[in-house]
Amino acid sequence: MLGKFFQKPEPSESDRVPPGQYLTKGFPVLTYGDTPRVNTEEWSFRVYGKVITPKTFTWSEFMALPRSKFTADFHCVTRWSKLDVTWTGIKVTDFLNSIELDPGATHVMQHCYGGYTTNLTLEEFAREDNFFAFELFDKPLPADHGGPLRLVVPHLYAWKSSKWINGLEFLDREELGFWERNGYHRRGEPWAEERYSGF
């Protein structure tokens, strides 16, 4: 299995591959449950909770936000990594400029088509290197990889980069998402191997 689908990193890549990870030769798809199929005409994105004014974006409204190109490494908790993944999307920081948060907001819950949720602190969410992706390798993001839109949080394991995202709930306290309630770590930092819950 290792030689066919995965490989150990070369010495020149070792500083980019977290402990316990192998490089994938493809881009594996791991999904719990069915894959939602949502077209952009029906898609919407709700922002609510600890915000001054709740808002629901249409696809065209979301796509009117500034676009950027990104290249980032991608690390899955199931021990594979893919280096130099190229995406097109919208910086989280640019998105945050389009809404007004309540001063009491400290955490955010990602909500997705299909019912998936995952949590982040606001500090982790608002990092400059995080983005919403709608293209993968210059093509529309496939549904299997989270299309039409997913969040990408490169510094954490990939379950924090929710596929099929359709809403953000800003909170004044920590709440746990799907995998966090089912034994995964609250944060999920690859270099610290924060795979599973320690509480």
From TrEMBL:
Q: Where is the Oxidoreductase molybdopterin-binding domain?
A: 33-179
Q: State the Pfam families in the record.
A: Oxidored_molyb
Record protein name field: Sulfite oxidase-like oxidoreductase
Q: Which organism is it from?
A: Pannus brasiliensis CCIBt3594
